[in-house]
Design a protein that fits this description.
- The chain has 193 residues and is an alpha+beta fold.
- Helices cover 27% and strands 29% of the residues.
- The chain has 5 helices and 8 strands.
- It has an 8-stranded mixed beta sheet, sandwiched between helices.
Length: 193
C-alpha cells in the first residue's frame, strides 16, 4: 500500500546537499545533467534530446510533488533528483498492511563517486520513516548499474527479489529490488549524512 506523500514546502539538508522541491528555474540544470549519455540509462530513460523534453519532465516533477531536486550547497546548482514514488511492484502479502514508497534517483555524471547519492538517500529514508509515516521503503536497480546497488546496500536495504521491468522503451530490463522496513532501519548504526 502506498503511503501518501506531498513534498510541498519540504526542504531537507545534508552536509553537502539541499533536498527541495523542483522550481521552474531549475530547467537549465535539469537539462544539463539529463542530456549526458550514461546518466538516464542507469535509471531507465534515454538522454534528453531537447530542453523541451526536460521542461516536460520538470513539469511532471513539480505537479507530482513526490520528487526532490538535489542541490549542491557549494554552488546552488541542481545535480540530480530523488523521487519518493509509488511502489512499482507488488510486495508479498506479509506487507499488505504496511504503508510504503519506492525511492528512485539519478545523479549527474560529473558528481559520481563523491558519495552524494548515499548522503541524499540516507536523509530521504530518515524523512520517510520519521516524518512521512512510511513503514517500508523499496528501492531497485538494473543489473548493469552496480553504483546504484552500492548506494542501496550502504543504506541498509536487504535484497527482496529479481524481476523484469518494462519501461517506456517497451523493452524488459532485469532489475533487483530491495526492501527496508522502519523497524530494521531503527536498529542500524547512526548514519552521518
Amino acid at each position: 500500500m502506498n503511503a501518501p506523500i506531498d513534498l510541498t514546502g519540504v526542504c531537507l539538508e545534508t552536509d553537502r546537499l539541499v533536498l527541495r522541491t523542483w522550481q521552474p528555474g531549475d530547467l537549465e540544470d535539469l537539462y544539463e545533467y539529463a542530456q549526458v549519455d550514461g546518466v538516464g540509462q542507469m535509471a531507465g530513460w534515454k538522454p534528453h534530446t531537447s530542453i523541451e523534453e526536460s521542461r516536460a519532465i520538470l513539469s511532471r516533477f513539480i505537479e507530482s510533488r513526490d520528487t526532490f531536486a538535489l542541490e549542491l550547497k557549494e554552488t546552488g546548482k541542481v545535480v540530480g533528483s530523488l523521487g519518493i514514488e509509488p511502489l512499482s511492484i507488488p510486495l508479498p502479502p506479509a506487507y499488505d498492511d504496511m504503508a510504503g514508497r519506492e525511492l528512485g534517483y539519478v545523479l549527474g555524471k560529473a558528481q559520481w563517486g563523491r558519495g552524494l547519492m548515499t548522503e541524499a538517500v540516507g536523509r530521504a529514508i530518515a524523512f520517510c520513516f520519521e516524518e512521512a509515516g512510511c513503514r517500508l521503503l523499496l528501492c531497485g536497480h538494473f543489473v548493469e548499474n552496480p553504483r546504484s546497488r552500492r548506494v542501496i546496500e550502504k543504506s541498509g536495504f536487504r535484497y527482496l527479489r529479481t524481476g523484469s521491468v518494462t519501461l517506456s522503451d517497451g523493452v524488459p530490463h532485469e532489475g533487483l529490488f530491495y526492501l527496508l522496513e522502519r523497524e530494521d532501519w531503527l536498529r542500524l548504526p547512526p548514519a552521518h549524512p
